[in-house]
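Lab notebook, design round three. We kept the backbone fixed and only want residue identities now. Task for the bench partner: fill in a sequence for the structure below.
Input structure tokens:
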């Protein structure tokens, strides 16, 4: 990355988050409804894309690049958490990973009401995968790579002779 200024590295990282958001929306338009954790993963990418656009429009500032790094790290963390839920490494949120708590105390009518209110898209089921890696897993890989770009930008790498 030594040939690129910190500004362009940040812009590239922000564009990467925008591309991940666009891909998520394409998958959604193809019928892959997002679960609650899928939607949660989109927010840090939106923030990173907006930060990248701000750096493109107004110039590089280390504090903005640091915010971009923080957003990318949050996206990475959320994606790792979601992939772990899908792989049953840990429990996900009760309301989107199945199960209705308090079954023993529920009447049949209460149980039916709870089941009707339960989300259709489960967080612990893999809707799509490529090479054995789910969308959440790919998001974790891509988000980690984008975190690396943001880190390079924060560190202030610059083209020889160019100001950061």
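Proposed sequence:
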């Amino acid at each position: 990355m030594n040939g690129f200024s910190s500004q362009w590295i940040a812009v590239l990282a922000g564009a990467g988050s925008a591309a991940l958001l666009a891909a998520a929306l394409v998958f959604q338009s193809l019928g892959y409804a997002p679960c609650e954790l899928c939607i949660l993963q989109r927010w840090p990418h939106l923030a990173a894309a907006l930060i990248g656009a701000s750096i493109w429009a107004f110039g590089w500032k280390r504090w903005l690049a640091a915010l971009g790094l923080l957003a990318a790290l949050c996206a990475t963390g959320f994606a790792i958490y979601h992939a772990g839920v899908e792989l049953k490494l840990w429990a996900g949120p009760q309301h989107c990973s199945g199960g209705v708590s308090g079954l023993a105390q529920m009447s049949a009518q209460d149980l039916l009401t709870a089941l009707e209110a339960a989300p259709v898209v489960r967080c612990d089921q893999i809707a799509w995968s490529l090479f054995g890696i789910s969308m959440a897993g790919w998001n974790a890989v891509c988000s980690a790579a984008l975190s690396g770009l943001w880190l390079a930008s924060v560190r202030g790498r610059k083209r020889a002779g160019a100001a950061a």
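Keep this in mind before ordering anything: Helices lie at 6-29, 36-58, 62-86, 108-117, 135-154.
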